[in-house]
Protein 1
Amino acid sequence: MATALVLLNVKRQQIKEVSQKLVDMQEVSEVYSVAGRYDLVAIVRVKNNQQIADTIAGEFAELDGIIATETLIAFNTYSRYDLEHMFSIGE
């Protein structure tokens, strides 16, 4: 599985609309509204890097309201949630 964190600048009045359209995409697992230099962070989880490129250059590019993106490709995942879930018994 390939994972990318996509940092997005979005027109202020369209943040909720763009967030919903992103999270409705099969390739997007989560969307976060954040403070700071970016407005949204979308987590893209797909089979390979080509699908990341297709999703961002294709599907994201078609959405009205996105001003700019910056994509971070994840090499490894370290998550307390995954470890706790894996070792939980009967919960």
Protein 2
Amino acid sequence: MSFSIKSKKIVSSLMALTLITSATAGAGSNVISKIIPTNTISASAADHVSSDGKWRIEFTSTYTCRVTKYLGNESTVIVPEAIDSHSVTSFGSGAFKNQGQLVSLTIPRGIGSVPSEFCMNCSNLKYMTLSPGVTSIGARAFKNTNSLISFYIPTGLTTVGANAFENSNISSFNIPYAISGTRTIGSNAFLNCHNFSEVSLPGTWRINSDAFSGCENLLNIDTEYSNLTYAFSHHGFRGASNLDKLNGFRIWATKAGQPYIHQWIRDYVTPYETTLYNDNVKMYMSYYNALHGIY
């Protein structure tokens, strides 16, 4: 009988100890969860400030990252190929937006596109070096970079977004050779680039409405006639009042003492009279003056 009573006491003690241990473990886990939230790791991965404090990045894989914001204040910036042991493979929209102190910017190889508003409002940016692999420039990427004078254009570039270079100070946009397929220049891409003087676009390009509007110092265009046909019908060169040459040909010439419009305009720009009048370019004015004997 005594053995039975003792056994019952032992069992009771063990059960009580189990309950106390379970309660303590539960309380402990609650305390730990309050101290270290369960989403800490994912939050860090989504919004991480680099160890040197210069970059806000997102980890896109175990070995790669996207730069979402430059946090430094240097005037010359060379984006490293890797930040905190993660290769830089892309940028977020507005990564350098409103960096008024920025004068020179170089981005690493392996970048395929420049996002929207990338350097928008960087009023002192003068020198921009893109990765050779860049194929697209996003909308408003370099809008209001009115000090920009040096800009490397990748040979494989296929898309320039709307308002990408509006109010910038670049003087030319020359692609070295044609590639297969149609490349695109968005609406207002070079709007009011007052220092712009020449453009060379070999191959097939879709030049959208007002792409080079307000470029009053644009003198020479070198591209396929079919590209110009579409461009003029969409006022791609509205206000380019000093335009003088197309594909090496003078837009107007003198024949028998009278100025006349180059023949290809009659053949390719339809209806050339209305289109060119609306765009207010020299080629139409010369033609108009010749017709009305104003010269």
